[in-house]
Amino acid sequence: MAGGVAGKTVWITGASGGLGEALAYAFAAEGARLVLSARREGELSRVADAIAGDGGTARALPMDLADPDAIAAAAADVARVEKHVDVLVHNAGQTQRALISDAGVDIYRQLFEVNFFGPLALTKAAMPTMAGGGRVVVVSSIAAYYSSPYRSGYNASKKALHGLFDAFRAEAHRDGIGVLLVVLGSVRTKVSVNALRGDGSAYGRMDPAMASGMDPAEVARKIVRATIAGSEEIAIAPLHQRWLMWRKAWFPRLASRAVRLRPRG
User: What's the CA gap between 88 and 124, in Å, rounded?
Assistant: First the structure.
């Protein structure tokens, strides 16, 4: 983005903690005006207050991505107050820890509501405020390229996101709207703790890969730099996780064998 994001309006979903909170601080450090959304109003206010305390500008706008009415109301609020959205960051998401045989179809519907239909609905609702220039940043995962057991719904939703936003990039180009797909490896957040089991309950445990994952603050800074640079897709992952993507592309049978040998659970 020419001139960076100073003074620009950046709307971030899933901003009440984890990578979303780190993204809020990273964009604020570049002088952006922030709209922060998530379900947890108290945590959103905490993040907004922290940014304001450092001299930044941020406001909390609670929103549930699984609720179409809430999305429409939030978009109308942003259009009225902010007038123009320069960067829309789809960071909110939910994952899964269950075998396909153990998970009800309702679990998959829930995952797609948050991970796919929510970003789709919000993008459509925000488009009028982005006309003439803006960027949509989609926080995705290597799961879009390399599926693994116990995460089938998450894997599928991330693959769907890539298909959706690759097409949107081509369609929205004439309106001056760009798209950045961020392909992440493991980040040190609590996303696995809140993963869905087959019965819909929370997984309640931190995955070892997440516990030893990348620092959210460093990942956020890289995403901000890629946004400003106008990148269309960027992979942020340790070398051994990038290798998973390459192995799937060039050695699919080897990749399938490796997935089968992964620990169950």
Answer: 11
Q: Is 203 a catalytic residue?
A: no
Q: Where are the domains of the chain?
A: 9-260
Buried/exposed code over 28-43 (b: 16+ C-beta within 10 A; e: otherwise): bebebbbbbbbbeeeb
Please state the CATH superfamily assignment of the domain spanning residues 9-260 in this structure: NAD(P)-binding Rossmann-like Domain (3.40.50.720)
Enumerate residues 6+ apart whose C-beta is below 8 A from 185.
141, 142, 213, 214, 235, 236, 237, 238, 241, 242
DSSP state of 227: H
Q: What is the C-alpha to C-alpha distance for residues 261 and 265, in angstroms, rounded to an integer?
A: 12
Per-residue pLDDT of the chain (265 residues; tens, 9 = 90+): 777 999 999 999 999 999 999 999 999 999 999 999 999 999 999 999 999 999 999 999 999 999 999 999 999 999 999 999 999 999 999 999 999 999 999 999 999 999 999 999 999 999 999 988 899 999 999 999 888 899 999 999 999 999 999 999 999 999 999 999 999 999 999 888 888 999 999 888 888 878 888 999 999 999 999 999 999 999 999 988 888 778 777 877 876 777 766 655 4
* Gap between the Cα atoms of 150 and 135, Å rounded: 33
